Amino acid sequence: MAYLELNDVSKKFNNIVAVNQFNLHIEKGQLVSFLGPSGCGKTTTLRMIAGFETPDAGTILLDGEDISKTAPNKRGIGMVFQAYALFPNMTIRENIMFGLKMQHKSKEEMAERTDNVLELVRLKDTAKRYPHQLSGGQQQRIALARALAIQPRVLLLDEPLSALDAEVRVVLRGEIRRIQSSLGITTVYVTHDQEEALSISDRVVVMNGGLIEQVGTPQEIYRKPDTRFVATFIGTANEFHGAVAENQTVNCEQINISTSRVADYTIGKKVVVLVRPENIEVFDERPVGSLNNLFEGEIDTITFHGAITRLGINSGGRMFTADVNITGRNALTHHQHVWLSFNSDYCQVMPEA
Amino acid sequence: MNTSKKQRAASWQVIIVVLFVVYMILPIIATYIFSIATRWDRTILPEGYTFEGYREAIKNPYFFITLKNSLVLSVASVLVSLIVIVPTVYWVHMRLPGAKPLLDLLMILPFGIPGVVLALALVQVYNFAPINRSPILLTAATVVFTMPFMYRSVSNNLEAVDIPTLTEAAQSLGANLFNILTRVIIPNIFPGILSGSLLVFATVFAEFTLARLIVGAGFKTFPMLLVEYTRKDGTIAAGLSVISFSIAWIVSMLILWVSNKGIKSSKDVINAR
Predict the structure, then answer these.
(1) Strands A154-158 and A77-80
(2) What CATH number does the domain located at B61-272 have?
């Protein structure tokens, strides 16, 4: 049995389905993120685990105990909010001790645990200050420390980094992961930022319209998307619509794409072929040897992203997006004639919806 | 050129401020002076000064009775107002935001209904023992009458703080409703509660119409005594006004001083925004 189980959990608000038949098992010590666009039901699901919303149907089991109807203050679940939610009238130390006071811990234990969590988030010297005297990133670390001080059974984070600067966001997500794995605390992390979800999670739950689209490791989600939604929501993908033909090819308008992934489909089946931009190679001249899926075109757009450069290539009216590393290659210019190719193993094929 | 323009603007501002202060303070100063004047109708300044008026007022056996009655009535009104309004406003903010427009509308009614109408209506409706003509009915009436002051102060303060999220944060840390209210919500809306209480106290302490019409002579309040004297002796009436004003002022200072700690944390709340 999994540590945290959501079985057939559903929730409606004014007859609008927010979460529909949500099933998920989370093992102890894992960090699982809920990823999806706004309104996909990820926050509602998190709030049902926390107890701030009651499921209309289904059960939530924590360590074998049904907590679906338990009051939020009796669940022993720690929560970190997007808006930090530190108590403005209390010092940092008082904020962290709040949960321990509610548990009627001894003075010595409260002091010890407070010191420990402050050490953990590396903010020991802020103990006597008030929340407004701290930066956003520091406040969120204190909020994390406050949630951890009560030694919660599960830690929930609701878009904890959304209100912070890009730089602080990257540092803090690393901190969260470091603390989470060092404590081995079961964690659910809600975000709409795919990069965040992919970089810190053991497993990612991609949600859309109140339904789970896919559950998998970050690699699985990125490399083997189950649905077109996942493929396009996570990263960028070139999409080609066509019908399955013989010899492992897909007939798209004007072009044929060779792919090793069509074995499951009958001939004539309408499908979508998806290719990641980083899997497309770009050549200045026609490459020697026989390459699969070789097309020629003209560079239309060049966007510099730092580590990579994204090219928009027009091939007979069809646009390809390709990511290339410009280090050690000839400069690319607008309207330059190029050749592009991608391996037939790198194509994702899914049925036309 | 530029600086002279600025200076002229500054002198205009000073004139406006001075006019405003004179307008506000002159009647109060005049009342103070009149209360210690021997005769003040033939000269610009009084002909002489005496504390005879105050001595007369304190000699009246009703002086301390009415003072006590008014204090009891004011304190009771503040307490009832706090107990009824603070949890209600909090609950509406948290769980029934849809009811807020209705509550806002209800809170304008006491301004729209004259005290006389309210008093006569209450006397008619609650015309049965033991509450007819009782101080309890009067307290209920003053609470209704001053409700907008408490409601506005508390409600505005609640809106300035992210109460729903703070409540959920406290819940997730294991706090029950009592702890959430006493440790998180009330400390953070304390400035609003304080200013609401001051307004209610001052208004009820100086309230005449409701007291006169609902309880009459059975529970004489300080303003009732004051009005009696305006018909008999202007100097004593002025003295009582000064006392009434001073008490309201002293109570305000006292509350502000006692809650110095609360004010500090309220500054933190404001700075945090």
Answers:
(1) parallel
(2) 1.10.3720.10
